[in-house]
Amino acid sequence: MAAANPSIFLLMVNGQVESAQFPEYDDLYCKYCFVYGQDWAPTAGLEEGISQITSKSQDVRRALVWNFPIDVTFKSTNPYGWPQIVLSVYGPDVFGNDVVRGYGAVHVPFSPGRHKRTIPMFVPESASKLQKFTSWFMGRRPEYTDPKVVAQGEGREVTRVCSQGFVTLLLSVVTKDMRKLGYDTGPADTRGVPGPGLPQGVPR
């Protein structure tokens, strides 16, 4: 289809949700989903998934290792709305209820190649101490109805959050026909910022 329509380019992403660090918690699982602009569409693979439950490793790192695979291909006519991966981590509280332990999001790397990303996670906080106690007592922590809101700035400024844990992603990125359309996604610099040739419309 891309050959028949030179205005379309492809973005192929595969890799894994490798591991996490949540010093205070154990027996966690992770969900991922992709958020992207209206000009994008998945053509192969899965755009969301849920991992197995894992316990902390017995070595000094005490890491939660999932090695949960990611494999998806997108097509688009416009780099605006470049895909983001949204992560949500869940685990049991003291009463055995599944509660959110962290949200996080990151753009799929713009430059082709292998990439490692460590994503700081956060959780929403109750607005008052009373609400905080009530949510703990009832086993209902504050959480987003739709985790995809994490990838959108709108309305986030009114949410109180608390940093909590990190998740590490390993990703391999391949693009097709972007150069034919005049987009240069040259190698990222040491900070992971896309090369200077990327159009202004691509979110950074």
Characterise this structure:
With 204 residues, the protein is mainly β. The longest helix has 10 residues, at 129-138. A hairpin with a 5-residue loop joins strand 6 (84-92) and strand 7 (98-107). It has one helix at 129-138; strands at residues 9-21, 29-35, 40-45, 48-50, 64-76, 84-92, 98-107, 113-124, 161-176. The chain starts with 8 loop residues before the first strand and ends in a 28-residue tail after the last strand. The protein contains 1 helix and 9 strands.
Fold topology:
Layout lengths: L8 E13 L7 E7 L4 E6 L2 E3 L13 E13 L7 E9 L5 E10 L5 E12 L4 H10 L22 E16 L28
Antiparallel strand pairs: 1-5, 1-9, 2-4, 2-6, 3-5, 6-7, 8-9
How would you summarize what this structure contains?
By secondary structure, the chain is mainly beta.
Number of strands: 9
Mean pLDDT: 82
- Multimeric state of these chains? single chain
Strand order of the largest sheet: 3-5-1-9-8
Q: State the distance separating the first and last CA atoms.
A: 28 Å
Strand content: 35-45%
Which H/E pattern describes the elements?
EEEEEEEEHE
Structural class: mainly beta
Q: Helix count, per DSSP?
A: 1
Q: Segments where pLDDT lies below 50 for 5+ residues?
A: 188-204
Radius of gyration: 19 Å
Largest sheet: 5 strands, antiparallel
* Mass-distribution shape: elongated
Helicity level: under 10%
Notable traits:
about 200 residues, 1 helix
